[in-house]
Amino acid sequence: MLASVCTAAGADAGELRATVRNVKPQQGKLWVALYESAESYKADRRFAGQIVDPAGPEVTVLFSGLAPGRYGLAVFQDLDGDSTLGKSMLGIPTEPYGFSRDAKSGAFGPPGFDALAVTVEGAAPTTTTATLTD
What we know:
By secondary structure, the protein is mostly beta strands.
């Protein structure tokens, strides 16, 4: 399955193609957020986003028309259908989640932007993977 979002296109517009792996097909939608800077990631202000209904264990999500720069992707699978990432009383996610570059969460929260950032340059497609936790 390939989902796409087009943003402001330009002569130097780039493309980010993210493959989300370890998806539980037909058990909940994928919520995908794209961040354009460390500041927007830290403030949880997404630049673009998609909600995808997965049909298989692997989904490719496409963001096109991107200006050259660094972008980070965070994704979770909404198994309970409440439109938010479920968390335990200790703040530990209870639903599958992942980040671009397969960045791993730290002991006290999600990875920093540098760990998940990918560089989009010009018209050449940039690829990354995000493997969901079990």
